[in-house]
Write a structure and sequence with these properties.
The protein is mostly helical and 90 residues long. Helix content is 84%, strand content 0%. It contains 4 helices and no strands. Helix 2 packs antiparallel against helix 3. The chain is extended and about 50 Å long.
């Protein structure tokens, strides 16, 4: 296993997920069900694993037809567009 790649992915996904809608929804479920914190944790963990698996599979399929550099540029442009759209709506 490529340790550098693994740690890059862990840190990137961890910081990207902090404070997003998914974490807020998880906090809401935990607040509504204080005695079931492990059920909330397990449910949100499974959902994140499934979403990540879908992302990995989609990335694998897309990488067969789109060059990695092009895909990186498209993803970067997408983030910029979302950021501008978010700022414009604020």
């Amino acid at each position: 296993m490529d340790t550098k790649l693994f740690l890059t992915i862990v840190s990137t996904v961890f910081f990207a997920e902090l404070g997003d809608k998914t974490q807020l929804a998880t906090m809401l479920y935990a607040a509504r069900s204080p005695g079931d914190k492990w059920t909330v944790f397990a449910g949100s963990a499974v959902a994140l694993v499934l979403a990540s698996a879908l992302g990995v599979m989609a990335g694998e399929l897309i990488s067969r037809t789109v060059d990695g550099r092009t895909l990186t540029r498209i993803a970067g442009a997408g983030f910029i567009v979302i950021g501008i759209w978010t700022l414009a709506r604020a």
